[in-house]
Write a structure and sequence with these properties.
globular; Transmembrane protein 150C; disordered C terminus; 348 residues; transmembrane helix; two-stranded antiparallel ribbon; 6% strand
């Protein structure tokens, strides 16, 4: 009879150990004299387990194990030691607030109004000074009286060629201000709990824009009454609109920027109100026309800075105009109601 001799190592039971890696790979190990040696490295769980020797399996393991494995383990004497995972390196990206591509192009509309109007008014001023129509703003108060008029904006744009530039600048500024007022109303409409405040701001801006057109098209020497009405509308309702928009900015807090945009607007509104009061007092009561004209120029610049501040909120929004074609067969009001009732019945 033939006797079969079995080595002690081969007689040991196979104790498979499974662990997962990338791609669902499964490794099966068997006990060996030197520790746990993987028997095979395969993609599926169902596989035939052979019985190669320990050295062959160790050589096979070195070939098949990846070098940089996220969940790789190291085989040591009688235990498994997990390796430290590699840190994930993230690419540097620009924050949305600092990335210019994230901003809407509508943010440039208030900036265009501010830059265009201020540049146009100063051009009118320099034209009037060059033509010896007004005194410069830096004229000392103790200077000798001259035939030149005080440098009010209305007086600077009263006589051609400065009046032509003044009319064009005021008309364009009124149009841009009206567009900004409408866009601002649309922007705040779904977020305002008290719609009357938003509507009041829109009406005040519209009246101020209309007053700007009266200022530009009816010069002081041609029709003083209409010109003064335009002054009252532009400055009076413009100041009211600034306070309303300041309150709405702090109340709604768009994109958590209510304080960042609201506090400067409150400061500008207070400065505009103070300048408006001092302007009428110095001009009518004390007849200090040089001081009153300087305050008037400062007040107008504050108005323009206030309009320019709308770029803070406009950079987060995109406004679109949707144009649709009319239907050929229009439904009457009764037909519309009947269709609506039928739809509700079907839904029930």
């Amino acid at each position: 009879m033939l006797e079969a001799s079995i080595s002690p190592v081969a007689a040991q039971p196979i104790a498979p150990v499974f662990w997962g890696g990338d791609g669902g790979k499964i490794q099966v190990q068997r006990p060996c004299s030197s520790g746990l040696i993987p028997l095979l490295h395969t993609e599926t769980r169902s596989s035939a387990i052979g019985a190669p020797d320990c050295l062959g399996m160790a050589h096979l393991e070195q070939k098949q194990m990846p070098e940089n494995h996220k969940n790789a383990t190291e085989v040591t004497k009688d235990k498994l030691m997990p390796t430290r995972p590699q840190p994930i390196r993230r690419s540097k990206q620009c924050s949305p607030s600092m990335d210019g591509k994230k901003c809407s192009v509508w943010m440039f509309l208030p900036l265009v109004l501010t830059l265009f109007t201020s540049s146009g008014l100063w051009i009118v001023y320099f034209i009037a000074v060059e033509d010896n129509k007004i005194r410069p703003l830096d004229t000392p108060d103790s200077s000798k009286p001259t035939s030149l008029k005080p440098p009010y904006i209305s007086i600077a744009g009263d006589v051609p060629p400065a009046s032509c530039v003044f009319s064009q600048v005021m008309n364009m500024a009124a149009f841009l201000a009206l567009v900004i007022a409408v866009l601002r109303f649309i922007q705040l409409k779904p977020k305002v709990l008290t719609p009357w405040l938003n509507i009041s701001g829109l009406v005040a801006f519209c009246l101020a824009s209309f007053g700007m057109t009266l200022l530009g098209n009816f010069q002081l020497s041609n029709d003083e009454e209409i010109h003064n009405v335009g002054t009252f509308l532009a400055f009076g309702f413009g100041t009211m609109a600034c306070w309303i928009q300041s309150a709405l900015t702090l109340k709604i807090n768009l994109k958590n920027e209510g304080r960042k945009a609201g506090i400067p607007r409150v400061v500008l509104s207070a400065a505009i109100t103070l300048c408006l009061v001092l302007y009428f007092i110095l001009m009518n009561q004390f007849k200090l026309h040089m001081q009153a004209s300087r305050i008037q120029w400062g007040m107008v610049m504050c108005f323009l800075c206030f309009f320019g501040s709308f770029a803070v909120e406009f950079r987060h929004y995109r406004f679109e105009i949707i144009c649709s074609e009319y239907q050929e067969n229009f439904l009457s009001f009764s037909e519309t109601l009947s269709e609506a009732s039928e739809y509700q019945t079907d839904q029930v």
